[in-house]
Amino acid sequence: LFCFGFFLGMEKLVTCQYQRPNALCRLICYPWSGGGTFRLAQWGKLFSSSIEVFSIAIPGRESRIKEPFAKDMTTLVNEIASALLKEFQEKPFAFFGHSFGSYISFAVALHLKEKYGLEPMHLFVSGAHAPNSEEFNAIKSISIYDKEDEDILKEIQNLGGTPPELLENEDIKKHVILTYREDFRLLQTSFFEKAEGNIPFSCDITCFNGTEDKSYNLEGWRNLTSGDISFHKLPGHHFFLLEPSNEIFLTKHIATCIENAGL
């Protein structure tokens, strides 16, 4: 995978396959559990020259496979925020995250707002509960260590998104299961408690979901911003975003939202 000549720290964290130094805005994409950078980095070709796409590489996979998994959510958030701080300060940025990636993008956005007074111009979340919902807290209380490998494998297969032929390779299958466990553990170390009357963001938030996916508690997202919030259901299951027609809708919609923000 291509990681171009960014300064040390950022070059291992970001895949940018379509570099656009003169872009007006950056879209920072966060992967789903077990996911890599490749698919979301490819979105770069679907946008005009005004938007540059960064796809975030998380430790323990792809080009970072020899690195230990992130210790906890705070460690991961600190790595992303410090490595990309110059980029966040340089020009407007938006976040897109799917599933597990939605929770990482939210945690990074919260950290940037609290520590640096920076926030995305738009937060696009997909296939995820609001982080202040009972449903999200219920996920965090599940004991991943009590689950057998076979049970986790079934969950991965039910979700889709992982090519079945990959899971036929014993080493790859073991690593996919381990990554899922580690990502789940990471999720359980995330902490957010919304103080009464505190609205952390002022940016717009858009929530995407698949029509055949389970239902998510999305209402909580309304309480996290003073900006506008919108909801879109697209045909498909949890990985609806991998369907080419949905990818086109998503990228067009994201581009429209960014352009309407008056860059």
UniProtKB/TrEMBL annotation:
GO terms (BP aspect): medium-chain fatty acid biosynthetic process
Keywords on record: Fatty acid biosynthesis, Fatty acid metabolism, Hydrolase, Lipid biosynthesis, Lipid metabolism
Molecular function GO terms recorded: fatty acyl-[ACP] hydrolase activity
Entry-linked Gene3D superfamilies: alpha/beta hydrolase (3.40.50.1820)
Entries under Pfam families matching the protein: Thioesterase
Keyword Lipid metabolism: yes
Enzyme class at the top of the EC tree: hydrolase
Highest taxon in the source lineage: Eukaryota
Domain Thioesterase: 26-246
Catalytic activity: (9Z)-octadecenoyl-[ACP] + H2O = (9Z)-octadecenoate + holo-[ACP] + H(+)
EC number of this enzyme: 3.1.2.14
Family (UniProt): Belongs to the thioesterase family.
Protein name: S-acyl fatty acid synthase thioesterase, medium chain
Species per Swiss-Prot/TrEMBL record: Eurystomus gularis
Name of the coding gene: Sast
